Amino acid sequence: MSNIDIEVLRLGHRRGRDPRITTHLALVSRAMGASKFLLAGDEDDKLFENVVSVNERFGHGLDCRYEKRPLKFLRNIVNSEGNRPTIVHLTMYGEPFKSTIPSIPTENGIIVIVGGAKVPGEIFKISDYNIAVGNQPHSEVAALALFLDALTDGEGFNQEFPNAKLVIHPSKSGKDVKEV
Ligand code: SAM
Known about the structure:
The protein is an alpha/beta fold. The protein has one domain (6-179): SPOUT methyltransferase, trefoil knot domain (Alpha/beta knot, 3-Layer(aba) Sandwich). 31% of the residues lie in helices and 24% in strands. It contains 6 helices and 8 strands; from the N terminus they run βαβαβαβαβαβαββ. The chain has helices spanning 19-31, 45-58, 70-76, 97-100, 121-126, 140-151; strands at 6-13, 36-41, 63-66, 86-96, 110-114, 129-132, 166-168, 177-179. The strands form 2 sheets. The chain has a 6-stranded parallel beta sheet. The structure holds S-adenosylmethionine.
């Protein structure tokens, strides 16, 4: 389990075409230990309902909220102790993730930004790190998962989820799910 406070900001959500991929971003964030998921772009309460339902069944792990003004939010961001978290923007134009992660300060928490259709240029400037998971275009879900795995040194999936009603036990064959 990693003790880095991780928040994920999803930019440019489009209610018409992005709900599935944005939900996957939220679920990866939850499964890999992020504490908050911030949605920018179109408002989409239905998407949050999905995450709330997963939290209720599999344990509480992620708070979601809508962020109307992501740039203003990023300009003013401080953590609960008044310190500024490190802002990391995932982009195929950035620096290589594996060699750059060791230099990223994590003690004040991390905001990980994943883009949508078009990422405003200011995001590149406001971010402390522009990080590439390979320099080819692929998927924000894959980029987030690989980045969080490397950031947490492979511990991202080792989370405990309080108040779970369902607990899955690893099984060689079939589904081993206990109702609590
Ligand atoms: N054309 C868009 C732009 O202006 O950057 C990129 C769209 S891409 C489908 C959506 C998001 O996936 C990006 O904003 C980025 O966060 C993430 N992404 C895609 N490929 C990536 C890569 N190789 N490394 C890091 N992030 C990547």
